[in-house]
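FAQ: What does the model actually see?

It sees only this:
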Amino acid sequence: MAMALLDQIRSIFDGDPGVRKVADDPVLSAELLMLFRMILADGSVSESEMVVFRHICKEAFGIPETSIDSVIEYLNDYGYETNGSQAIALFRDLDVERRKLLARHMAEIAKADSKLAESEVKLLRRTLDLLDISPVDLVKPEE
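And it is asked to produce this:
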């Protein structure tokens, strides 16, 4: 109980830890913005897409569940400063596995609502081209 109170007081002075993590990492910010662009690609935000987005934030990036709403608010407030081409440019110099991870996350979100809109396919295809990734690379290898 006391630790939770201390964490709340600290977040008031230091800001939300999830938002700090995103704000301090331009590549992470760019990836989250690209995932948001995929969510919005079909013109609507489905609950299933948001569930997948939240899962990716938590599992792939270690953003605490309690921070995700604040991260979304941060991206809404500051994301307009970065367009899709600028976000993708940050990924071009990264290793191929990191680029594949972005593409896989985007595909997960596109498939989340069980219907693949043409606009989602176009965004994913364009992203794959810009990242120099083959659609085959979206399939995770058997482990």
